[in-house]
Amino acid sequence: VKTFKKYSLMDNPPDFVEALAYSKEEMVVMPASFADASEVESGKLNCIGRWYKPWFFKHVQSFLRGSETKVEYLPLRDYYHRHTKSIFWELEEIIPWGNNVVFRFLLGWAVPPKVSFLKLTQTKAIRDLYETQHVIQDMMVPFDTMAKSLDVFHEQYNIYPLWVCPYRAYSYKSKEAPHRCFLKEPENLIKGKEYEMYVDLGAYGVPRAVHEKRPFDIVKVSRAVESFVESVHGFQMLYADSYQTRDEFRTMFDHSHYDAMKKKYDSMGGFPEVYDKVCKKGQASWAQAATAKKNN
After folding, report:
1. Helices (H), the chain
2. SS3 162
3. Which DSSP category does 93 fall into?
4. Nearest to 223 by CA among 247, 248, 205
5. Chain centroid to CA 150
6. Which long-range CB contacts under 8 A does 225-228 form with residues at least 24 apart?
7. How do residues 251-265 score in pLDDT, each as one tens digit?
8. pLDDT of residue 283
C-alpha cells in the first residue's frame, strides 16, 4: 500500500499506476511510463499481446517469486489491452486451462470470446448463478481509507486478484458556480491542488465462499460494501449492480445539478432517473410503472 501511494502521489508521477493484489498480504505495484523505441533495453521487450503469451495477471503474479524491482517494455497496444485476452481474470472461470502453454499455443488466437456471444449462449440457470454467486464491482474510496477498504473487500468478497488504480477526484466549484458533478465534491483536497486522491478497487469473479460451497448472500454482502463505501465518502461505479435504496443512492451521489436539469428537460418524468437504470430496486419499480402505463 505504501509503495502504491508513493508512486501515485509523486509530484511528477508515472504516466500509469496500477496494482494487482493477489491476497491480503501480496500485491504487485506497476508504475508505467511512455518510452520511445530507441529507449528499449535489449532483452526486456515483452510483446504480451501475442496469442501464445501468458495471461497478463498470471505473468504479473510470477513477480511475487522475487523481491527485486523488474523492468519490462511493452508495445503500447499490448499494454492498453493487457487485460483483454483473459478478460482481466474472468476467463479462468470459463476456461480453467486457458493459460496452459499448450492451449495458448494452439488456441490462444481464439480468446477472448466476445462477451455478447457469452451472454447469447447463457441459459437462465447460468444467468441466475451469475447474478447471485458472481461479483463485478468497482468502488472508489479516498486514499486514506485504502488499507481499511482492502480489509472490507477481503472480509465481504474474498476475491483475488483485486484490481487497484488511483483516481483524481476534482472539485469543480468556482466563484461563479457551485460544484456541478454527479460525484460529490471531494472533502480533503491535496494542498495546492484542486483534487483529492482516490483509489479504485475492482473485484471481479467468484467469491471464495462460493468456491468452498459456503453460504453467500450477494445482496447482504453488496449492501455491506456499499454502506462502507458511502460512509467514507466513496462512490460505486454505475456499470455494476447496486442494491441501494433510492435515498441511499442519493446520499452517495450529488443530485443537485442533475435534479435541476431533470426538472428543466424532463419535468413529466418520461425518462428513468439514473437510479432506475442502475439499481436493482429502481429497475424493478421502473419496469412495473412502465407495464402499468402500457396497460392503461
Report:
1. 2-8, 56-61, 76-80, 91-94, 101-107, 115-120, 124-132, 146-156, 208-211, 218-231, 246-252, 256-265, 274-278, 280-295
2. strand
3. H
4. 248
5. 13
6. 225/137, 225/139, 225/152, 225/153, 225/156, 225/157, 226/252, 228/149, 228/152
7. 999 999 999 999 999
8. 81
Give the mean model confidence (pLDDT) for residues 214-236.
95
Nearest 10 degrees: CA dihedral of 285, 132, 56, 48?
Answer: -60
Cα separation, 214 vs 201, in Å, equals 24
Instruction: Read off the pLDDT of each residue in 83-100 and give the average, rounded to a whole number.
Output: 93
Q: What is the amino acid identity at position 18?
A: E
What DSSP element (H or E) covers 31? strand 27-32
Question: For 35-85, how does the pLDDT look when each residue is reduced to its tens digit (9 = 90+)?
Answer: 999 999 989 999 999 999 999 999 999 999 877 889 999 999 999 999 999
Cα dihedral: 222, 228, 231, 232 (round 10): -120
Q: How many CB atoms lie within 10 A of CB 7?
A: 18
Residue-level pLDDT at 3: 93
